[in-house]
Design goal:
Two copies of one chain form a homodimer.
Chain A: H1 26-40, E1 48-49, H2 52-59, H3 63-75, E2 79-82, E3 86-89, E4 104-106, E5 115-125, H4 128-134, E6 141-151, E7 154-164, H5 173-178, H6 183-191, E8 197-206, H7 209-215, E9 222-232, E10 236-245, E11 250-256
Antiparallel strand pairs in A: 1-3, 2-3, 4-11, 5-6, 6-7, 7-10, 8-9, 9-10
The first copy, chain A, binds a DNA duplex through residues 5, 8, 11, 25-27, 51-53, 61-65, 67-68, 81-87.
Chain lengths: 257, 257
DNA sequence: ACGCATTTGTTCGTATGTATT
DNA sequence: TAATACATACGAACAAATGCG
């Protein structure tokens, strides 16, 4: 009568893609429902979502079950809980989450404030490599942004950013350079796109002549190459970013647990 | 890091040393007690700890409270839960956690298996910089290990590892090179020291002549410099590691959430 | 200044499901 | 099959933080 149980070995393996759970705990189902509503934009970044008790009533489950679903969503940075106030949709626009995706830190005794300088923002056909990463059809439109981050007037980071053109209609150099605050905040506010997670690949490379000139270092200087692919809801890639970091006074910081 | 402080403002600040919580939820107190017992070695890596119900009886709290304490400890990788079997002390010796601290990944289509070659293992006085990082008195003994990781007979990583001499008595080149499995597994088994977390600082540097020779790259080639400080219980630093990575066929992978 | 209502946070208790031995 | 252990779910009560009147 009971369906055959999955292989006992499964638990020992790293992360088998899985034959689709087939069943799933109630709180996981609630979690999925909440995620879907977040994705649909029912509650926008920064807004409060209904209280646990109301959600429990709405979904016809106990408050504790909603709580567990929200716990996981909070843990994955989709939501932020604030005691006494409510639970809010996470946003990149807030102070304390501002640098959630920026791992570049100043060395001891170095002033870490960074100024931004927009170098370029234009629409063009996505190069093959970009199209592949962003899941675009070959030849589809993309936005290319190039910008510089400087510390005390010294260049530190040269970023090249690629975005799917279809999702970022109306993104212009003006809009970009007049925006105060994190770029991902602009994406949320103007285009309704929230970056949910990202993967980075880091390498050491020798500076090409043109990049070296922009970064004011000798040609062939060692630079940190940070390639980032950022995803929104539904594991959809929406940003490809290639950053070249000078690491004489800064370093990429990572915590291992 | 898990939000622990009860004050809402505290979350906004970097890491206020805090006036000592003064109060703390029950489950946090239980968590601290469990951590202390782990640190004391009451249960060794890989062993089962008592069941939730027994711990609840022992501490005179409800099972749910113990559960919440264990949840956090599991989340921080101190413990591993296994349904039906029990809760176990985490260990670096197991297959699936073997590469918990190694973020170097092979590029697509590259064979990622790495061979080890021990270059050196000797005891000496800790250089000033090492002593500072490891909280040693100047001139105290330290163990220096140098080793190479190779992929298909090509050097990929040159590691220089520093350990406090007092904690690693009896660590020899023989012992090291005859050990099969992750080095942190050896540390657990032979010296009772478990690496609980680590911080890494990553930079791009130009290869010095001697390192270039060992890594079989031209002098001044760009290399990834990964400086790691690893901690045991009680935030005690016990390993300083300086790795030079060749990143032509490998990359340092990081996930941002 | 004070108290009240609301919301999340903590703690307990109980029952049932699922995995393992 | 039975016993054990963790996992899920519900319900209830009180604590702590917040905002409002």
């Amino acid at each position: 009568m009971a369906p055959m149980s999955p292989s006992a070995d499964a638990a020992d393996r790293p992360a088998m893609p899985g034959p689709a759970p087939a069943f799933s705990p109630l709180y996981q189902q609630i979690k999925a429902l909440l995620l879907a509503r977040l994705q649909a934009g029912e509650w926008r970044p920064g807004e409060v979502i209904p209280s646990e008790i109301e959600l429990a009533a709405r979904f016809k489950v106990s408050q504790g079950t909603v709580r567990k679903a929200i716990d996981e969503l909070a843990q994955e940075n989709h939501l932020v809980r604030r005691q006494g106030k409510g639970t809010f949709v996470a946003t990149h626009a807030e102070e304390r989450t501002q640098y959630r995706f920026l791992r570049l830190m100043p060395d001891e005794g170095v002033d870490g404030r960074l100024q931004r300088r927009l170098l370029e923002c234009r629409r063009m056909r996505a190069p093959a490599e970009v199209a592949r990463a962003l899941d675009l059809k070959s030849g589809e439109a993309a936005v290319q942004i190039r910008r510089l981050l400087l510390s005390a007037d010294q260049p530190v980071v040269l970023d090249e950013i690629w975005l799917p053109g279809a999702l970022f209609r109306g993104l212009t150099a003006e809009r970009l350079s007049s925006w105060r605050g994190p770029m991902y905040g602009l994406f949320e506010a103007e285009f309704g796109l929230r970056m949910v997670r990202a993967e980075e690949r880091i390498r050491a490379v020798a500076a090409q002549d043109d990049d070296a000139a922009v970064l004011a270092v000798p040609p062939r200087s060692p630079l940190l190459l940070v390639e980032r692919l950022s995803y929104t809801y539904g594991d959809k890639p929406v940003e490809l970013r290639r950053g070249l970091y000078r690491t004489e006074q800064f370093h990429y910081r990572n915590e291992l647990n």
